[in-house]
Specification:
This protein is about 30% helix and about 35% strand. The chain has about 180 residues and is of the alpha+beta class. α1 crosses α3.
């Protein structure tokens, strides 16, 4: 398995079909929390759903289009982080993440993001990292602020999640010259 060590507690592992059962259990346990901000929990609930997700993600990784990793905290799968889109022409990646509610407040996402940002800048030669967070998702927006990202603007009616239409706050971070 392709893996990156963030620190002694956090590792990122390239998504794999072997994670499917653990992903399904994690998503089920966090369903009510996740569906507030993400569209996929209504459509991806079983181990087979996650197996299909992993296969698509691995194909996109092989094609250089994305990078999707499970987040492991003290050897337990606790969430997901990804470059949802790697745009080599624009030298930009869009980053996304989610974390089990039980593991929030430990700095896990911030540290994982810092690691992947350095990977994007140093290994992939990207110039910009972009994160889109629901305007009302203050926890996710707090991550962007801790990463010293700049709020570039808000896109209204950006996404339908469950029965709500969400606005997105768009954050950017540029590689220092």
């Amino acid at each position: 398995m392709f893996a990156m060590e963030v620190d002694q507690d956090i590792k990122l592992g390239l998504v794999d079909t072997g994670f499917s059962k653990a992903y399904a259990e994690l998503a089920k346990a966090n369903y009510d929390y996740l569906k507030q901000w993400l569209a996929w929990p209504d459509f991806c609930q079983s181990a087979d759903d996650f197996r299909q997700f992993a296969k698509r993600s691995l194909h996109d990784y092989a094609d250089g289009k994305s990078l999707t990793c499970g987040i492991f905290y003290q050897e337990n799968l606790v969430g997901n982080i990804s470059f949802n889109d790697i745009d080599h022409k624009l030298k930009k990646v869009t980053m996304g993440y989610w974390l089990s509610a039980d593991y929030q407040g430990k700095g896990i996402i911030t540290r994982a993001c810092q690691h992947l940002i350095q990977y994007a800048f140093n290994e992939l030669d990207m110039q910009k990292i972009q994160i889109s967070a629901a305007k009302e998702n203050l926890a996710s927006r707090g991550v962007c602020e801790r990463l010293n990202m700049t709020l570039e603007g808000t896109i209204t009616h950006a996404e339908k999640v469950s029965d709500r239409i969400l606005d997105h706050a768009i954050y950017g971070l540029y590689r220092e010259s």
